[in-house]
Amino acid sequence: MTRRTTMTAIALASALLVAACGGAEGEEGAGGGTSTAATSDRSEDAGRSTTPSESAGTSPSTSSPPSSSPSGGGPEGVLLRDTSRKTGAARDAGVNDFPELRGVRVGIHETYDRVVFDFDEGTPRFVAEYVDTLHQDGSGEVIPLRGDQDLKISFLRAVPDPDFDDGGKNTPVIRELRLVSYFEGETLFGVGVDPEGGGRAGFRVTTGKNKIILDVAHRAAGSAG
Predict the structure, then answer these.
(1) Sequence-ordered list of residues with C-beta below 8 angstroms from that of 179, at least 6 positions apart, any chain
(2) What phi and psi, each to the nearest 5 degrees, are found at residue 10?
(3) pTM for the whole thing?
(4) Of the candidates 5, 104, 139, 157, which lies 20 to 30 Å from 77 by C-alpha distance?
């Protein structure tokens, strides 16, 4: 309540005590400060990690229809069931640009784990899909990952930072995250996934300002719960 409104309420109190009290309660109920855990912020940061959260909004990949709330639920209660291939176009990057991957952050949410790929300017095209065997681009070498399932995500026309370090980026569901190769302008990551219930976990890919976000469900798509 503002100072002016408060003074007015005091002046009227002697004549209309009950009405003044009712008006004061109505004004207080209509107000309210902003929450630091707003949905728009929680849905885009990496989660419970030591890195600072981001504040830019995200948009869904081209493989899924847009929705105001991903998969019809809140950011913490959402159930990811879709295991199909995901693709997305470049964003805020010119046709001759090669966005540079600056870092990767991993966080844990209530029903899924999140990987955030941070780029210097704009985001490249991407392809994300499960594979039976993960191969290194160029050499064709088989790359084993910890976990029951191999999920790969490729960034086309993107280059990793020379000092990029992918060590220590794992959770109980994401057992391993590895920069597999950089070949002919394509940066390939492998994600070893070990969800509850066995089988492939649902996942989604969204894009935000200078970042691409991968969410992987804690439970396999075909399991109960």
Answers:
(1) 160, 164, 166, 187, 188, 189
(2) -65, -40
(3) 0.68
(4) 104
